Amino acid sequence: MLRFHFSAEDLARTRVAAAPHPLWEIAASLHRFQTPAGRWAYAHWYRTARERLREAGLESAVRQILLPLYPRASYWPDFLTPLEGAAGLEAGLKAILATPPDRVTAELTALARVRRVPPHLARLPEKRCRNELVSVLRAYHRTVIEPHGEWMHESVHTERMRLARHLLDGGTEGLLGGLGPAVRWRHPRLEIGTYPAHQDVRLEGRGLLLIPSYFCWKGPVSLADPALPPVLTYSLHHEPSRPAPGSPSLEVLLGRARATVLRATAAGATTTEAARRAGVTPATATHHTTALRDAGLITSHRHGNSVIHTLTLLGATMLSRNVRETGPGRPG
Question: pTM for the whole thing?
Fold first, then answer.
């Protein structure tokens, strides 16, 4: 259980990050490599990310340096996700380099309590080793995060607009109550019941920075040290509520072929693959993907000689609602 305790001053100082936080996105994306949970939502990214890391010669660095520092569903050092990263990647990397060696040592010691820290990472308090870490983080971001930058920024912008409606209708408490099913507002506390550690954070007038994250899946994440500026990073992939009985199926809303194309994009599909799934020609599939993209349900990215289509947040929500209504297994 994680609980943030608010005062009236904290409610006034709660805000939402204006853009993706690159270092939190790095952390969350590394967690995507460590579990199959939610992989359908990142299928296209996962497939291309592994290929890009291999082409960039970064597979070994990710395996030996990054993954040991960012264990999923466990503690990892707070200095790796500094608040300064909200101003951009380089500002965040500069803050990592400026972290006092004593703090780096203390946080690595805490990490060693939950998992083995390789000897080469135990030297991170040294500036030279942190320079190497920063170089790897920069290269990793350039290789697998930047190519999805436009999509991520669009997703965060959509989330900010959604939260703005909650704020206008219900004030800050309405905003806090609209963060998704994993987060519950019970005045004067914000509670995450599924958090792996028991922690009470008294904001004491500092407010809370909410960081919507594209790569965060399901459970929100915060810093381990309550003395640091309070943040809550949470998933943009909200679990939709169950639709009302009798909601129309995708086939009724979209037509059989177009609904099949939408389902095909859940795991990432080329135009040819979508056409094969729907039993139509590639030209007809292109017509359907254009219509779905214009409706904001899918997005398309060119990869080599192919165009790969994947779900947007709106498309994923629509598909998930239909799966809940009609039962699992239909997307294939």
Answer: 0.75
